[in-house]
Each structure stands twice: as C-alpha cells, then as structure tokens.
Design goal:
By secondary structure, this protein is α+β, with helices and mostly antiparallel strands. It is about 15% helix and about 30% strand. The longest helix has 18 residues. The radius of gyration is 17 Å and the shape is globular.
Length: about 180
C-alpha cells in the first residue's frame, strides 16, 4: 500500500474517532447553576469592544474551580492572553469542538495534556477586559466542523458558522441534573 493511502486512512480514522467519542457535557464551573448565567447572553449585541458576545458568562465566587465541560479535552493553550481574555485555557473536545475558558483568576491546566471532568483547569476570576466586573468564567464553544446554515443577518452573523451556543448545552445539562 502506498504511503499516501496509509496517511489518508490514518487521518480518516482520527476524524471518525473524534466524531464518535461521547461528549458528556457538564457546567464547567463547580457548583454552577442556571441562576449563574443569563439565558440570552449568547450572541448579544452590542458587547463592548468584542462587538458581539460569542459565549456565556457564568458568575461565581472568585476562586471557584473550573473543570473541563466535556468528559475529556486536549489542552491546546493555557496561559495569559493580553487584552480581552486575560488568563485563558483553550481545549479541543470530542465532536471536534473547541472550548474557550477565559477571565480566570488562575490557570491550572498544562498545555498539550488531556484533562477530564475531575481535573481543575483554573479558577473563576476577572482578568483581561473583565477587571472591573464581578468574577465569572467566560465560556465559549467553537467547532472545527463549520455550520453554514447558522449564518444570519445579525451583527457578526456570518461568524456563527464557527461557533456553538453554550447556553443550549448548559440548559440541557441543568434540566437533566436537577
């Protein structure tokens, strides 16, 4: 078998594995409830210098533990981003989803490691452009499998092909874990 066919089979296999791994979503903020986030804050416009709010803010006491939202995730980045995000962790989750955790007080994740629901990847804070707000986790979800049907005429609506609404997942989690 030619090398390019082997490489193609490996790539297809990795892609399929990424799709079939269970997602098992949970609220990433320890002790977080439906009362800790606004149900209509996703894609809210206007939202300061970010123009459109592409995630959800989960408010909790500063220092509360943050866990991966999925059963396991691969840490792509963990550290400080100057500007908006402050202390940030970016992960790759099952179903080819990207999770973005920011405004953390402390980052505890290590880049290029696998983390699980039991891992603590950071703590709730107000770093970056959230310095003058109550402590919270900004949680965003992206997808590597683009969704062109989500595009609309809202401000930044064309960018919806790259994002997922985390409130849908949070609401479903809390409705099933009462």
């Amino acid at each position: 078998m030619k090398v390019w066919k082997i490489i193609l089979l490996i790539c297809v296999g990795i892609f399929i594995i990424g799709l079939v791994i269970p997602y098992n979503f949970q609220n990433p903020v320890e002790g977080g409830t439906k009362r800790d986030y606004h149900p209509q804050s996703y894609w809210h416009y206007p939202w300061g210098t970010s123009i459109t709010h592409k995630g959800v803010d989960i408010f909790k006491k500063k220092g509360a533990a943050i866990h991966p939202a999925s059963n396991f995730e691969w840490v792509l980045y963990a550290g400080h981003m100057p500007g908006k995000g402050g202390n940030v962790v970016i992960t790759l989750a099952p179903k080819w989803r990207l999770h973005y955790y920011d405004h953390m007080d402390e980052v505890k994740a290590i880049p290029l490691t696998i983390v699980t629901h039991k891992s603590i990847i950071g703590t709730v804070g107000n770093t970056g452009n959230a310095a003058k707000t109550p402590a919270h986790l900004h949680f965003g979800m992206g997808t590597l499998l683009l969704k062109p049907w989500e595009m609309d005429n809202s401000p930044d609506g064309w960018k919806k092909v790259f994002y997922m609404n985390p409130i849908t997942f949070l609401d479903s989690y809390h409705n099933n874990h009462r």
